[in-house]
């Protein structure tokens, strides 16, 4: 969740979906060691650091994802499976970054937006926090089916099934946000200072531990394992077939996994350590303060995924770059010189297919088909 804090209340919990333990720790301290462990320095740091960083993420995320959305909606006439997931990822990231100004204002001052927006913003945050990660996993799955199980029309890669999977992602993300709909509310403490956070009553510790471990599992561990498996199998196929552009495709696969790990591992590790602290496995007041500082920094780093991940996926595509050039040429009033041949959706031209595959990891199925035609049956590509 966005690490929003009330400037006057040491016991402020987090808003949104209880993803951040910055406030869980305050809740824990409130009931256990509040008279011993004070965190005025942590809150002072948060008032300066978080609004600045949230503003940066908002600007970068809004600009990058809007551009991606415009290109996909305006310039891509027939979106393939990967582009359907990329479109949904852009929408998810846009809705996510829109919540950040609310948390930035809240941490710098207090929650001034009322009870309804408290629930709406918190729910939007959670839905798009998870859906963004899930859609990255969907794109990895699609690439796995496209290359490892390469066939002209794979039964698992129909447009209808990709739309069904996208709908399932939104439904699961919505289900995960149910605690926000039910428990998040506005609180006044002290008088005149409002905060937006979930109130679980007497089960706060149980809920916060459950939600942290849920995020560690669903928001990091399972997607990371899935991506590692998918891209490892893709790498094995590319090494075996040795197509043109193999080295570039392998580098891109490694870059996607490394980027996901770099953004999310520090935050999830800090989240896990906070859970151990709440369970009194280790730590003291000083450790708690250091984890709070670390949480703010690593969570902000994780939020950067919504700025750079779509760009990484999109600009790895030669097809997308061609459409972007055409859009920019149109916007600048220049004569459009873009030729659709290199990015044609038709599989009829082998040379076009090979060019696209050499430049674009998202069309490696075409590359695989073109390289395999003269040496082996396509069905052999999909064999385990």
From TrEMBL:
Residues 344-355 have a biased composition (Low complexity). The chain crosses the membrane at residues 52-73, 85-112, 124-142, 163-184, 217-241, 253-273, 293-315. Residues 64-313 form the G-protein coupled receptors family 1 profile domain. One of its GO terms (cellular component) is recycling endosome. SUPFAM superfamilies: Family A G protein-coupled receptor-like. Residues 359-378 have a biased composition (Polar residues). It is found in: Cell membrane; Early endosome; Recycling endosome. One of its GO terms (biological process) is calcium-mediated signaling. The keyword Glycoprotein applies. It is a multi-pass membrane protein. The keyword Mitochondrion does not apply. Residues 339-384 are annotated as: Disordered. Keywords: Cell membrane, Disulfide bond, Endosome, G-protein coupled receptor, Glycoprotein, Inflammatory response, Membrane, Phosphoprotein, Receptor, Transducer, Transmembrane, Transmembrane helix. One of its GO terms (molecular function) is C-C chemokine receptor activity. This is Atypical chemokine receptor 2. It comes from Octodon degus (Degu).
């Amino acid at each position: 969740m966005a690490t929003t804090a009330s400037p006057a209340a040491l016991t402020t919990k987090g808003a949104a979906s209880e993803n951040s333990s910055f406030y869980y720790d305050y809740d824990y301290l409130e009931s256990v060691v509040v008279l011993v462990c004070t965190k005025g320095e942590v809150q002072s740091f948060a008032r300066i650091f978080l609004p600045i960083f949230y503003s940066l993420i908002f600007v970068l995320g809004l600009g990058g994802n809007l551009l991606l959305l415009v290109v996909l909606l305006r310039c891509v006439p027939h979106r393939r499976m990967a582009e359907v997931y990329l479109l949904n990822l852009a929408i998810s990231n846009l809705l996510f970054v829109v919540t950040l100004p609310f948390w930035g204002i809240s941490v710098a001052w207090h929650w001034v937006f009322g009870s309804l927006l408290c629930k709406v913003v918190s729910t939007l945050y959670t839905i798009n926090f998870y859906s963004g990660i899930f859609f990255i996993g969907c794109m990895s799955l699609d690439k796995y089916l496209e290359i490892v199980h390469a066939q002209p029309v794979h039964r698992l890669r129909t447009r209808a099934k990709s739309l069904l999977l996208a709908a399932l992602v939104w439904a699961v993300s919505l289900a995960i946000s149910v605690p926000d709909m039910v428990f998040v509310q506005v609180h006044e403490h002290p008088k005149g200072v409002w905060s937006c956070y979930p109130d679980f009553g007497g089960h706060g510790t149980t809920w916060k531990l459950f939600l942290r471990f849920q995020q560690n599992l669903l928001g990091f561990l399972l997607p990371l394992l899935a991506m590692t498996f998918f891209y490892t199998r893709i790498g094995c196929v590319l090494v075996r077939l040795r197509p043109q552009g193999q080295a570039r495709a392998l580098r891109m696969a490694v870059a996607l996994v490394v980027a996901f790990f770099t953004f999310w591992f520090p935050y999830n590790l800090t989240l896990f350590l906070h859970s151990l602290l709440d369970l009194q496995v280790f730590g003291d007041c000083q450790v708690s303060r250091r984890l709070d500082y670390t949480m703010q920094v690593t969570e902000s780093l994780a939020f950067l995924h919504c700025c750079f991940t779509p760009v990484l996926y999109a600009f790895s595509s030669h097809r997308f770059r061609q459409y972007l050039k055409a859009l920019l040429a149109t916007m600048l009033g220049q004569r459009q010189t873009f030729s659709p041949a290199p990015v044609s959706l038709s599989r009829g031209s082998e040379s076009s297919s090979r060019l696209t595959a050499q430049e674009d990891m998202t069309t490696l199925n075409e590359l695989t088909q073109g390289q395999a035609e003269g040496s082996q049956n396509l069905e052999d590509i999909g064999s385990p």
